[in-house]
Amino acid sequence: MSLLSASDLMGMVVKQIMFCQEQGVFFDKVEETDSLSVRFNKIRKNYESKNRLVDAGFSTWDRFDSDLAYLLQDCFSPIEKFIFNDLRCNGIAPYPQLPVAGFFLDFAILPNKIAIECDGAEFHDIKKDRERDAKLIALGWRIVRIPGWACQTPERSFGYIDTVRGVMRLDRGLPQYREEIAA
């Protein structure tokens, strides 16, 4: 493995900056004070920009993008903040608020196509969740649902961390849906 010289690294950075300027690739921080429609538009545009960088060879979906996560962190619910930090501390690198098929996944693990949904009492509708899950499963996604009560104590978080790790190891031929995590 050869190391890049400082001038080679600087050349790559300049090339990426020029690409972004020429192609109109930009990222915008989602703020807590943004309206929902502004948040959703910023999230979509940030992921479109990320995808353009991937397509141009400047980035990849295989590694966690901490810059993108920083831009999106203010749109997390309290449960999502806890679960995001817990996943990261346990070596799992999810993409937050990934837009897929007209939905925003709370978290996605790429390229495994694992959706992690945080089900707080305020926004949880079992019927809508089942319909949404069916659409995502038809697109090849595996769904892990984490109820809000499962992240209230550190002891309970081990249950969903183990479940996410288990789903990451599953072969495609095995069941792709786990409705609820028993803690």
Whole-number tally of structural domains? 2
Give the helix/strand class: alpha/beta
CATH class term of the largest domain: Alpha Beta
Q: From the 3D coordinates, which CATH architecture of the largest domain would you assign?
A: 3-Layer(aba) Sandwich
Give me the CATH fold name of the largest domain: Endonuclease, Chain A
Taken from the alpha-carbon principal axes, the silhouette is globular
Main sheet: strand order: 1-2-3-4-5
Could you list the spans in which at least 5 consecutive residues all have pLDDT below 50? 171-183
Q: What is the number of beta strands?
A: 5
Q: Could you give a short account of the major beta sheet?
A: 5 strands, mixed
Helix content: 40-55%
Outline:
The protein contains six helices and five strands; from the N terminus they run ααααβββαβαβ. It is of the alpha/beta class and 183 residues long.
